[in-house]
Amino acid sequence: MKPENNHGIKRVFRATGFSMQGLKSAWTHEAAFRQELVLAFLMLPIALFVDISTVERLLLILTLFIVLIVELLNSAVEAVVDRIGDEIHVLSGQAKDIASAAVFMSLALCAITWAVVLGTRYL
Question: What whole-number distance in Å separates Cα of residue 76 and Cα of residue 99?
């Protein structure tokens, strides 16, 4: 049931609270999210302190965020599929596999971007 008077600044605060709950849940229950977040925190200082242009720096940082965003969406798909039922179903497997492929693609994008930006600068 939707809460009444859920508009304006009150809606923004409620939405922010739900987002924080989602991040906490992902950190608590999703090992892949924890690993990718730690990796992002380790890579962020590199992106901030290497001698590259502002656009290149932004590309490095954006790809880190893309990996985290796609991992959150993958976790959401997995949770919904698991909520529907425990039986093996081809469409459930397909949904999970496609979401997992999206994570793989985001990781590939991140790796390629970092390799090109840093490789052209330092190799």
Answer: 9
What is the number of structural domains in the chain? 1
pTM above 0.85, yes or no: yes
Tell me: is residue 57 an annotated ligand-binding position. Answer: yes
Is residue 39 a part of any domain in this protein? yes
Residues known to be catalytic: 71
29-56 pLDDT per residue, tens? 999 999 999 999 999 999 999 999 999 9
Residue type, 98: I
**Owning domain of residue 106:** 31-122
CB distance 52 to 121 below 8 Å: yes
Q: Which residues contact 36 (CB under 8 A, 6 or more apart)?
A: 67, 68, 71
Does the annotation list 97 as a binding residue? Answer: yes
41 annotated to a ligand binding site: no
